[in-house]
Specification:
mainly alpha, 4 helices, rod-shaped
Length: about 150
């Protein structure tokens, strides 16, 4: 068999022999190194399961972190809402104080003693500005009370 190969090679020119030798050499290298190269590139089942388990653990940790951050957001929103309600209550108290002060002033102004005739008391009607301010304060108090009740639910 080898004698036939030598007869075939004898009929090739020198450049053809070199090319044939290179083809044979390349084939031997590919056959020898090919399987080990393929094994190094591809992952076996154990490596894949390890990677999958790492990713599952990472997903679980990220879900826990997301849940924790959502809880922090809810807590902060609740705290902010409570601060707003407290501030509205404070404003409501101040409005009530102003309303009481205005009522006291307006009641004192309802009756005046006539300086020309001291035994005569003159009834003075509150002025329109005072009534408008009282209505405005009552409207503000009503709106704030509704807001507090709605947010408190």
């Amino acid at each position: 068999m080898f004698k036939y190969i030598s007869e075939i090679l004898a009929q090739f020119s020198m450049p053809q022999r070199i090319i044939a030798l290179l083809v044979v050499l390349l084939s031997v290298i590919v056959i020898t190194l090919g399987p080990s190269l393929i094994n190094s590139i591809t992952l076996d089942g154990d490596e894949l399961w390890t990677t999958i388990n790492k990713q599952k653990t990472q997903i679980t940790e990220l879900q826990d972190e997301t849940f924790r951050l959502n809880q922090v957001i809810r807590d902060n929103q609740l705290e902010c809402t409570n601060q707003i309600i407290d501030r509205e209550r404070e404003i409501l108290e101040k409005l009530s104080f102003l309303e009481n002060q205005m009522k006291n002033v307006s009641q004192r102004n309802l009756m005046r003693v006539d300086t020309t005739q001291p035994q005569r008391i003159i009834r003075v009607l509150p002025d329109n500005n005072m009534e408008m301010m009282m209505r405005g304060i009552n409207d503000l108090k009503s709106d704030i009370t509704k807001d507090i009740q709605n947010r408190g639910k």
